[in-house]
Amino acid sequence: xxxxxxxxxxxxxxxxxxxxxxxxxxxxxxxxxxxxxxxxxxxxxxxxxxxxxxxxxxxxxxxxxxxxxxxxxxxxxxxxxxxxxxxxxxxxxxxxxxxxxxxxxxxxxxxxxxxxxxxxxxxxxxxxxxxxxxxxxxxxxxxxxxxxxxxxxxxxxxxxxxxxxxxxxxxxxxxxxxxxxxxxxxxxxxxxxxxxxxxxxxxxxxxxxxxxxxxxxxxxxxxxxxxxxxxxxxxxxxxxxxxxxxxxxxxxxxxxxxxxxxxxxxxxxxxxxxxxxxxxxxxxxxxxxxxxxxxxxxxxxxxxxxxxxxxxxxxxxxxxxxxxxxxxxxxxxxxxxxxxxxxxxxxxxxxxxxxxxxxxxxxxxxxxxxxxxxxxxxxxxxxxxxxxxxxxxxxxxxxxxxxxxxxxxxxxxxxxxxxxxxxxxxxxxxxxxxxxxxxxxxxxxxxxxxxx
Length: 452
Hints:
mainly alpha; three-stranded parallel β-sheet; two-stranded parallel ribbon; 5 strands; 71% helix; 3% strand
């Protein structure tokens, strides 16, 4: 058991930019690609992930201080420290059973592929920590390690089914064939879906407003660099920055929005030959079986709508934290809310207006979930000793990924009647979401064949 733990920890310590390409190299060779072609594609994928990580870090490094300065200007002091996802990951990996989730995810994925229960081959093993975090929270709140593992298994299965669901839309948004995003972050689409259905029936709101539409309607003001500059400048002023510092932030935001689509173009030459080889292999071995390669969400980071929605909703999250009664968490480390925007991008198909509305609607959900989980996270963090928490304070995460899902799993794990009923309702809603988007995917494929 210790040997397995050491192997898993060593592999994960390589980092996503090394580990995921290594997995893709192995997958490419299994799919009978020539070593030279498989190695070149895998290396290019590593370069693409590294480049995207650099730009994301550049973007968050520029925006986060301004967002945090804006937070500090409120003068509000709340009891829970926002540690962001790094603090949660540290707690997760300190769990004694954490390493078991790595082989468990692989085993479930293989079984579901063999029995044709999924089309998704999830190579995004780096984010296994999110399954560990779910298992830790559920086992801690329910008092049952077994319930923690059951919750993690449910999450793994739903992630794979989400990968199947979003595959066509991910390919449409990125232009990369054969890929999807089976990330836990997309599960928030489940509760946003009724609002999306409603907005599509309201005149005026049912028109698609994406980056291309903005460019067409408002000209230069719809260009990535101009949108970035305007948003960065306004955020700088709101944060109390000087004119020169605000102008610097404007240029940094503009640079990031220009660089995102440029770096995202590296994914296509890396993933296209790999996805084609895997698809051909599956067709030969499993009677024309279609397979999506599941990757981390940054393959969607080239969409400027994602970043525009994230930055504009920063003040919304901050205002909600101040005015919502009973909230104990002031957004800080997690104030750039990627936990809503990836699901919103996919669900709204890059409709920026719909994405902004979803960001406003879900802001209270994130804050109340962060408040609810804060005592549990604090006790757990102090018990494992991985995070230093000031005396009299609590630790939480203001933009908790899929807060509704984890909340219901935790109470269902305690055999709480309302928790079980809530989880059943959530799963019924997921079935509705799946059927609705799947119907649209099939309709788009049919129309595409007619056009061609």
